[in-house]
């Protein structure tokens, strides 16, 4: 099995944590934008090769890995909805990060302002929910901690506005699988 990704991507980090949880052997192939453009129709990481199977999204990859070892993936509609909320905020935030890095003033473009507002309203909703203070973490929770780690590293969100999320991250970040998958801090 081969996982293509980067060490900074929060989507890839979620997959790397699931690999640790499942104990499956998988080669990690560090892939930049040139590599993902050449090999995946989405032009994004992660993507996975497992024999004849080729998967292009972290969610399908995680479902595949968990099913291979008989683990559950988003068992309830509520957990799936939480994962979708985290996905929305993560996807939107990563997208705006790349747009800003290209020099675009997002305050000048109404739809990008809507995207920025979507991040804040979704985080406000997530901040009102109860989050665990210790493992086991489900996939929505693992994804949330991966997102918060990325957003802090890239300074994309002021988490003093979301104290429950900040506290959740402090606990999750101490877990050995989060420690083992820390993104490079530079
Ligand atoms: N829905 C995808 C999103 C993956 C994604 O956005 N990956 C980012 C890295 S964090 C990427 O490769 N972006 C490159 C680009 O947008 O060109 C997933 O869950 O795998």
State the separation between the terminal residues, measured CA to CA.
29 Å
Low-confidence stretches: none
Give helix and strand order, one letter per element, not per position.
EHEHEEHHHHHH
Proportion of strand residues:
5-15%
Summarize the main sheet.
4 strands, mixed
Q: Helical proportion?
A: 55-70%
The outline comes out as globular
Mean pLDDT over all positions: 97
CATH topology of the largest domain: Glutathione S-transferase Yfyf (Class Pi), Chain A, domain 2
Question: How many structural domains does the protein architecture include?
Answer: 2
Which class of secondary structure composition applies to the elements?
alpha+beta
Q: What is the second-level CATH architecture of the largest domain?
A: Up-down Bundle
CATH C-level name of the largest domain = Mainly Alpha
* Tally of helical runs: 8
Number of strands: 4
The radius of gyration computed from the alpha-carbon positions, rounded to a whole number of angstroms, is 16 Å
